[in-house]
Amino acid sequence: MRGGPEGGGVRIMDYFEDKIFNSVSNFKTGEYDNCTFKNCDFQSVNLKDAIFIDCSFEDCNLTNQKLHNTAFKTVEFINCKLVGIDFTLCNQFLFKVYFNGCNLDLSSFYKLKIKETSFIHCSIKNVDFTESDLSNSLFGYSSLTNSIFSNSNLENTDFRTATYFTLNPALNNVKGAYFSRQNLDGLLLHHNIKIE
Predict the structure, then answer these.
(1) Mean pLDDT to the nearest integer, 168-180
(2) Does position 40 have pLDDT exceeding 90, yes or no?
(3) Distance (Å, rounded) from C-alpha 5 to C-alpha 155?
(4) Are 24 and 42 in contact (CB under 8 A)?
(5) What is the pTM of this model?
(6) Distance (Å, whole) CA 109 – CA 122
(7) How far apart are CA 22 and CA 38, in angstroms?
(8) C-alpha closest to that of 54 among 77, 30, 74
(9) 3-state secondary structure the chain
């Protein structure tokens, strides 16, 4: 348990360290440090105020989760379903996430500072990155169909293997960003330039 005396007004939280969870049917709101969640379905679990530090989620379903004040501090999601997640509800203190093989469709990172985030082999369709700071991030082999970039910081961000994205360089900071010749059409679409 973590926290102050029970009568002192400080909430006591359960503390879990170095554990592997294959089920979250008895999930307790608490602090999870260096824990792994495998094949867990979080759809009916309340993650409000939970804290995850150096954790990994593998083959988990968090679709439509309401992450009110949920803390993800250096957390990796591998082959997870994260459809319809509003990451703006998360606790932003030390917020750091990585995605590999995940479905993030219909999610929102509106105005978030998510520098150096990696999205590898992900489905990122209809996702809102408006005014987010994605500098030094990587969209590796990920599909960005209909995702929104507006007033976003994309400085030094790597789009070389990303597909189906469209963004207007005049409305985003793309200084030092990486693109390939194969996906220049997504960069130039707003200028009505034809590439053959």
Answers:
(1) 92
(2) yes
(3) 47
(4) yes
(5) 0.90
(6) 15
(7) 5
(8) 74
(9) CECCCHHHCCCCEEEEECCEECCCCCCCCEEEECCEEECCECCCCCCCCCEEECCEEECCECCCCCCCCCEEEEEEEECCECCCCEHHHCEEEEEEEEEECCECCCCECCCCECCCCEEECCECCCCECCCCECCCCEEECCECCCCECCCCECCCCECCCCECCCCCHHHCECCCCECCHHHHHHHHHHHCCCCC
Residues 22-39 have pLDDT tens digits of: 999 999 999 999 999 999
Q: Determine the residue type at 186.
A: G
Closest CA to 123 of 91, 153, 86, 84: 84
Q: Give the β-pairing of 51-53 and 14-17.
A: unpaired
Structure tokens at 179: 């693109």
Confidence of residue 11 (pLDDT cuts 50, 70, 90): low
Tokens of 139: 């969209």
> For residue 170, how far is the Cα from the chain centroid?
25
**Residue 22: exposure state from Cβ atoms within 10 A (0-12, 13-18, ≥19):** exposed
Helix (H) or strand (E) holding 150: none
Distance CA 196, CA 127 (A): 28
**Number of C-alpha atoms within 13 angstroms, CB side, residue 68?**
5
Residue where the block lists tokens 């973590």: 2
The residue type found at 57 is F
For the record, the structure tokens of 126 come out as 């209809």
The alpha-carbon radius of gyration of the chain (Å, integer) is 18
